[in-house]
Amino acid sequence: MIQVEHMNKTFKVARRSAGFLEAMKALFHRESETIHALSDISFFIGDGEMVGYIGPNGAGKSSTIKILSGILTPDNGTCIINGRIPWKERKEHVKDIGVVFGQRTQLWWDVPIIDSYELLKDIYEIPTQTYEENLTELTKLLSLGELLKTPARQLSLGQRMRCEIAASLLHSPKILFLDEPTIGLDAVSKLAVREFIRNQNKRHNTTVLITTHDMQDIEALADRVLLIGKGTLLLDGSLSDLMNHRPKEDATLDEIIATLYRDYDI
Ligand SMILES: Nc1ncnc2c1ncn2[C@@H]1O[C@H](COP(=O)(O)OP(=O)(O)OP(=O)(O)O)[C@@H](O)[C@H]1O
Fold it and tell me: What range(s) does the ABC transporter domain occupy (predicted)?
């Protein structure tokens, strides 16, 4: 269960114009700007739900996932996940969650994938039997086979993403946070990853929160959609609620989302 109430997050960023003179001025006087990444965000996600978290670039999606994962602390507001505050009880919290950041890696770059998994086993204190069972299942379902012997840096993006997803599931987390998990994947890999996530939800009742710019991910994986723009939650509804915004009868999901972004001016 994920309960977020009135959450705010700001970032302070230094600003200066280009040029030598401006650089010298900045040595004595730094100008900064406050960015409101999240403003008064509230939502509730029940166990076993699959929720798409969508919005344009810079809307606040990754900041939310980072707070839910315990990596970032909000300025104020509450967030309780399975009875815990993520950033305060990180060690226990991370045992409940699996996280995939499509643009980052949790695998050690120069060692074979299996060595990264062994390290994760120690970090998450996964009992040997659970680890062996999960590894066998994930290797089969995600066709990891030979990949396990290969260092992460020698894998293609799609191969590495399959290994990343397995890494995030080795400790049987109840909740999965996926930040653009299909970015850069070919059609076959995308379908495989989507099917795998759907199965994971069906078989283990895993709660899934997914951010993506690929609307086919949303169609395939989300029963419910949260729309965020400029740090504000604008819509919380089903896929059919999104359809109310379709500009024409035969509009694609991409066209509907683009209309939605225009309607909300985000
Ligand atoms: N560490 C940081 N320092 C300063 N500003 C940040 C930081 N992280 C995020 N921001 C700002 O907060 C806002 C929200 O960023 P966030 O990464 O959450 O957006 P997003 O919805 O995930 O975007 P995208 O779809 O492009 O990945 C943006 O304006 C971004 O520039």
Answer: 2-255
Q: What is the ipTM of this complex?
A: 0.96
Q: Give the residue, by CA position, lying nearest to ligand 1 atom 18.
A: 60
Q: Over the stretch 125-166, which tens digit does the pLDDT of each residue have?
A: 999 999 999 999 889 888 899 999 999 999 998 899 899 999
CA dist 211 and 182 (Å) reads 10
Domains of the chain: residue spans and CATH: 45-263 (3.40.50.300)
In the reported structure, the alpha carbon of residue 5 is separated from the centroid of ligand 1 by a whole-number distance in angstroms of 20
Task: Using the atom order of ligand 1, give the atom closest to the CA of residue 60.
Answer: 18
Distance linking the first and last C-alpha atoms of the chain: 29
- Pocket residue to mutate for ligand 1, from 62, 100, 180, 228, most atoms within 8 A of Cβ: 62
Burial of 7 (0-12, 13-18, 19+ CB in 10 A): buried
C-alpha 13/C-alpha 6 separation (Å) is: 23
